[in-house]
Amino acid sequence: MITVTKLEKSYGRLKVLQPLSATFQAEQAVSLIGPNGSGKTTFIKSILGLVVPDAGEISFLGEPIRGGWQYRRDIGYMPQIGRYPDNMKIRQVFAMMKDLRGTNQSPAQSNYLDEELIRAFGLPALFDKTMQSLSGGTRQKVSACLAFLFDPKVLILDEPTAGLDPLASEILKDKILKEKAKGKLILITSHVLSDLDELTTDVMYLQDGQLQFFKPVEWLQDITGEVKLGRAIASIMSNERKSERVNE
Ligand SMILES: Nc1ncnc2c1ncn2[C@@H]1O[C@H](COP(=O)(O)OP(=O)(O)OP(=O)(O)O)[C@@H](O)[C@H]1O
Questions:
Q1: What angle do CA 62, 39, 234 make, to 5 degrees?
Q2: Number of Cβ atoms within 10 Å of the Cβ of 173
Q3: DSSP code of 104?
Q4: How far apart are CA 124 and CA 129, in angstroms?
Q5: Is the CB of 37 under 6 A from ligand 1?
Q6: Interval between CA 178 and ligand 1 midpoint (Å)
Q7: Alpha carbon 110 to chain centroid distance?
Q8: For residue 59, which of 74, 47, 50, 51 has the smallest C-alpha distance?
Q9: Closest residue to atom 8 of ligand 1, CA basis
Q10: Cβ neighbours of residue 208 closer than 8 Å, sequence gap 6 or more
Q11: Whether complex ipTM tops 0.90
Q12: Which parts of the sequence belong to the ABC transporter domain (predicted)?
């Protein structure tokens, strides 16, 4: 569904993505994990066309994305920090997004809106609040609802539960599981690995912009003997550190 080939990105002298290749298929829920600054958001933004890579190629459903934007209609994106016009009310943000999507869309496509999460979060009661007046968590809820709104084939979620209260986190995780069951491709980053346990089919681990591994979660569980993602990753990382010390 998405193929990334030898992707590279630097900011000045800092190599943020070393040549990185990966293929993502429908029905996968890929957890993109790595330390702060390892290049996860840069990788995601490259797929979304928000960061222009220095080298390499990304294709979506077999077509290179370079210079194109139509493919973005098939991707729902929840950014780490959503930015919205301060004075716009929540209802206006949703209306604006629907208007933008409504243009050049066939009636059949424009009819289907997934507003389940809007109701589950109780957002209609807050529709007349302006974006600048919202708490961080409520702003995150708006971002989440927009990612799911147009029933996209792919969901890219950057730290989706950060800032959400426990109930909202569970509501969002249930929604992600539901969309996963429909066979969508889900790409998700989080530092809260316990949030990923139920969801993950595959783990992509980045460090210093380099892909350390991209494997099914069962592989990770087998080689570490750990069921929980957090423990499995910790086990791999501490073994790597030990072997680095031996090689020093
Ligand atoms: N626009 C930019 N200009 C300069 N440097 C940047 C820019 N965007 C990202 N970087 C740098 O690239 C590196 C990777 O950043 P990125 O946001 O991709 O990491 P991350 O793995 O998502 O981190 P986190 O877990 O903290 O969200 C960091 O060192 C960051 O400072």
A1: 110
A2: 18
A3: T
A4: 10
A5: yes
A6: 31
A7: 24
A8: 47
A9: 42
A10: 15, 18, 38, 39
A11: yes
A12: 2-233
Q: Rounded to a whole number, what is the distance in angstroms from the first to the last CA of the chain?
A: 41
Rounded CA gap, 17 and 208, in Å? 7
CA 119 to chain CA mean position, Å: 22
Q: Confirm if 162 and 154 have CB atoms less than 8 A apart.
A: no
Give residue 36's identity as a one-letter amino acid code: N
What residues does 20 pair with on adjacent strands?
7
- The overall average pLDDT reported for the chain is 91
Q: What are phi and psi of 4, to 5 degrees?
A: -115, 125
- The pLDDT tens digits of the residues spanning 123-178 come to 999 999 999 999 999 999 999 999 999 999 999 999 999 999 999 999 999 999 99
pLDDT score recorded for residue 104: 46
Q: Whose CA is nearest to atom 6 of ligand 1?
A: 11
User: Quick one: DSSP state of residue 89?
Assistant: B
Distance between CA atoms of residues 98 and 93, nearest Å: 9
Q: Is the dihedral of CA 172, 174, 176, 178 positive or negative?
A: negative
**Which 8-state DSSP code applies to residue 39?**
S
Fold observed for domain 2-247:
Rossmann fold (3.40.50)
Ligand 1 pocket test target in 15, 18, 42 with most atoms within 8 Å of CB: 42
Q: Does ligand 1 have an atom closer than 6 angstroms to the CB of 12?
A: no
- Residue 237 pLDDT grade (very low, low, confident, very high; cuts 50, 70, 90): confident
Angle between helices 136-149 and 90-102 (to 10 degrees): 20
Which residue matches tokens 């995780």?
173
